[in-house]
Fold:
Amino acid sequence: MTSPRVALALLACALVAACGPSTAKKTLCANNLRELWVCQIQFAKKEAGRTVLPSATGSAFWLAIQEVGAAANPPLDADVFVCPLSGKSGGKGVTTYRGPRKDINTLPESAVIGSCSGIHSDESMCVLKKDGSVRVVEKSSPLHQQAIAETAP
Ligand SMILES: [Zn+2]
Structure:
């Protein structure tokens, strides 16, 4: 008899096989955004008990985080700033992610602060909100439109 745990493991394997490498890379892209969120919290300045993030907008926001992260020990991995489906390699001053269109410090938790747009061949998009939640959305999703409106390259 097959235990439920083994059955679940088999199901997971079948799903990975069915979805293929592109889905795995989309998951990596979503993981990058999750990691960038952790980094911006980690490298934020604390002023009078308040967390202050860089006020730069668009991709310059992520590059400001990258600059602080490069000086950390161990230094932040530059590949985190690049979508694995972009074919680009990470490095100083390189990011494929869109950043917040306005000063992030003024935005509500529900605002989109990062996204991967125009790179995935199926037009899906990875979306990061200020509250740290990350989702992979299709072009038809309302969150897709919100992300385009609230982030900038
Ligand atoms: Zn991506």
